[in-house]
Input
Amino acid sequence: MRAAADAAKIHRFMAELGRAARGAGCVYLTGGATALLHGWRGSTVDVDLKADPDPAGLCLRPLPN
Output
């Protein structure tokens, strides 16, 4: 079972994603991550996202706990 993500983990994930991307684009969060960042829930088990366009260097892998 995966560890739950809180707002701090999502912010860390987005910062790392921004550092890894080598091109311009937008990243849209959906699902539980959005609800968490709006304060509607305390945690989520995954981060659903859509990059538009997929930036160069974008390689998604699990973050260490």
Notes: Residues 9 and 15 are 10 Å apart (CA to CA).
